[in-house]
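One such shown below:

_____
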Amino acid sequence: MANKNIIIIPWDYTESCRIALQHAIQLASVVGNSIMLARFLEKPGLFGKKSFEDLKETEEERLAAEASAISKEFNINLLIAVDQFKAQEIRDLTKDADANLVVCGRTYKTDKKEYETKDVVEELSELDIPFIIAATKPPHDYYKELVVPLDNDKKVKETMQWVVYLAKYYNCNINLFKTRLEKEVDKRDMENNMYFIKKMLDKKNIVYGVSTAKKDAVFETDIIRFAESIDADLVVVMINKYKKILREQPNYDEKLPYLVINRNTEIIKYGGSFR
């Protein structure tokens, strides 16, 4: 797994993907990752005038020209790929490319349709690697402060395996942000989580801090308040938590990028393999 070194950007020629590009360049510069621009198209209908292969060939020419211009602008080498905008095809591409991360804007336009954040997330939910949803440009020259929201969910181990990987791989500090709990059984679960987390981070010699949400605050909203107060660069959440944010706050204006971790068996192995 350690040879994974490609960051994939779903490319649609819009400002949204250019924001994602800035994040990808920043991350790639830290550890020497390569970057791939991936253009995704809709599958033609049964009576379409052109086959998918014809559309793909035309799109590859356009994407190659775009990649050439970007390469000159930022002095970087770029890979390109064209495929269908379906969860399985996206997953296959990440595997074939041996990618370790996808960085995407909040929206995505195929050749026929525009997808909102919740739709983009749904198509990325089958990946065995994490993905970043970026709404704004990187606030700093490099990622330094990660915020990790915590509750009594016992699946926290899966999140922390990736947090440890990111902290080591990109040399980041970890800011644990706890929700407030009322029930004693929930508090005990939180204490168990914190014991496990601190033990893991101490063993890896990772710098971290612990803070607690404000009383009576909506936790999802307070996460952003806290992240902005420490000038953080990234919020790390499991996909079920991120979907909850999108579901309960559909009009929320994200000011920070989210790194979203899918709950897949291979992801657990990958995240847990960096010791």
Notes: Residues 41 and 209 are 43 Å apart (CA to CA). Residues 52-74 form the longest helix (23 residues). The mean pLDDT is 86.
